[in-house]
Every structure is written in C-alpha cells, then in structure tokens.
Design a protein that fits this description.
This protein is an alpha/beta fold and about 300 residues long. Helix content is about 45%, strand content about 20%. It is globular and about 60 Å long. The relative contact order is 0.16.
C-alpha cells in the first residue's frame, strides 16, 4: 500500500547541500525546533507586506494607507515571538533591545516600500492572484511523492495574461554576487514557476519570477542614494528549469521508494562543504554520534 510523501524546496536544498543532514532531519526526525530574530522578523515582515498588498489590490491604495502599518508590524513580531515560545523555543532566543532594533529596521523598510509602492506594485491593469498560494504537485518520476510549497505573491498583468511569481526575502544588506550565483539558493522560484504552471495549467512563457529583497541596513558614507529594495530576476528559461528539475528528480529517485516512503537502504553522505559552510548552522555539527566529523567530506 502506497504511503506517499511530500518534499519542499527546503528539503531539496538541504539534500543537495548535505544528504546526511537531510536524512537526520526528515527521515530520522531528529531536528530540534529553533527560531531566531532573523526568521521571526522575516515572517512578521512577510505577513505585514502581504496584508498591505491584499488591501491595496482588493480595495484601494487609499484604504491600505489608512492602516497603521508600523503598529501592525509590531503586533506581527510580537505574535511570532509568542508562537516561537509556545512551540518550545527558549524565550531568551532574543530580547527587547534586539526586537526593538529589528522593528526600527522594519519601519524604515515599510516606509520606503510604501513611498515607492507605484514603482514596485502597480495597481492599474494588475490584479493580485493570491498570497501564500499553495502548491501540491505529484512528481513526474514518482507520483507518490508530491512537491509542496507556498508562493508569497502572485500578480497578474491583465493586459497580456502574464503572471509574476514573487518571493519576499528579508536580508541584512541585500544579496551579493555570490548569493545571486548560487544555483541552489535561486532554484526556489524556478521550481515554483515549473510547478505553478503544471498545477494551474498556465503556459511557462506567461510566468516571470522575481525575488523582492528588502534590506534592513544600508552601507554608510556612500556617495549615492541607496534603495531599501533589491529586485533580482534569476535565470528561469528552459535550460535552467531542466537542470534544476533534473536535480530534484535525482533527489526523489535516491531518497524515496516507489511507494513514496523514504529509502533507508542507502548511505547518506555528510558534506561539510568548503570551509565547513554546510556545518555552520547544522543542528548535528556537535553530535559526533550522529555525524562523525571524520566522515564529513568537502563535496
């Protein structure tokens, strides 16, 4: 009897970086829930901006601008903090001073985005398809494994029926050239484009993708004005899509059985990466009984 299973972009990237870490997290289920001020702020900012855009597109910009978005962000951050504590996170993972600092950064970002709203989010001839749009698509190589994801924003241009899939990223100072060149990091929207097209029967050529990156901090003493928003459109043509889809298919073939259950009959190597990059934030880096350091390869 088929058991079935689900994968996500985060599962794929974890497997691509270090199969052992993926196995310990998703097969052995040994991961421990952790929250940080960065993820807390990211979730709160996402929800705040999504709420603004929902009102703006479904009602009007005037209606959206009547809301107190500074206060809404504050409440969203407080909600995320309470949620983390309720899930077992040590309340000391952040403090009032740090929360206040990130909140002030959030205000600066919000004020910038709202003042430039017409540049980044046009209302005329555009409509909001949805926020947190769910994806659940059977994999071609194994229909008992489904790809699951949630798209931050989808906006449709009604003039030519094209769709823009947007992923909101909160960043300290934006993405540098190395982050932009990281194919695993930028694969998220390429996969979302592929699976959105399949699930909703939208032609691939009608879908564009965009990372909407907001910066908490700006460089000091610069001779030119800086933007709080960085737009990055990753390569998402057929060659790129084929390469990434093939990589995900290989993950599914290796890590799952035909019935969708996890493949526990193979070895999952530990890949530390250059300069131990993959180990830096790994829950198992100091647990030699689960991941002996001598077994970790550079990859």
């Amino acid at each position: 009897m088929a058991t079935g299973n689900k994968i996500s972009y985060s599962q794929y990237t974890q497997y691509a970086n270090c199969p052992r870490q993926w196995k310990l997290n998703y097969v052995d289920k040994l991961s421990v829930y952790t929250q940080s001020i960065h993820t807390l702020f990211g979730s709160a900012f996402h929800e705040t901006l999504q709420s603004y855009l929902t009102i703006m597109y479904e009602e009007s910009a005037v209606a959206a601008n009547k809301e107190d978005w500074h206060e809404i962000l504050r409440k969203m951050m407080a909600k995320e903090y309470r949620k983390a504590c309720a899930m077992g996170q040590d309340p000391k993972f952040t403090n009032a001073e740090e929360m206040g600092e990130f909140y002030e950064h959030g205000i600066l970002i919000l004020d910038y985005v709202l003042s430039k709203r017409g540049v980044y989010f046009q209302k005329k001839n555009h409509e909001l398809v949805g926020v947190e749009v769910p994806l659940l698509v059977p994999m071609d190589v194994n229909s008992n494994v489904k790809f699951r994801g949630y798209i931050d924003l989808i906006i449709k241009d009604t003039r030519d029926n094209t769709y823009k899939i947007i992923d909101i990223k909160t960043s300290t100072m934006g993405w540098n050239k190395y982050q932009k060149a990281d194919k695993t990091k930028t694969a998220q929207l390429v996969l979302y484009k592929s699976y959105y097209a399949k699930q909703f029967n939208v032609p691939l050529e009608n879908i564009r993708v965009e990372y909407f990156i907001v910066k908490r901090m700006l460089y000091e003493n610069m001779d030119f004005p800086q933007k709080r928003v960085q737009i990055f459109n990753p390569a998402a043509g057929k060659p790129t899509m084929n390469n990434i889809n093939n990589s995900v298919d290989e993950f599914v073939r290796n890590a799952f059985n035909e019935d969708g259950s996890h493949n526990t009959n193979r070895e999952y190597i530990a890949v530390k990466g250059k300069n131990n990059k993959n180990c830096k934030y790994c829950d198992f880096k100091n647990k030699p009984e689960l991941c002996p350091s001598k077994e970790r390869i550079v990859g």
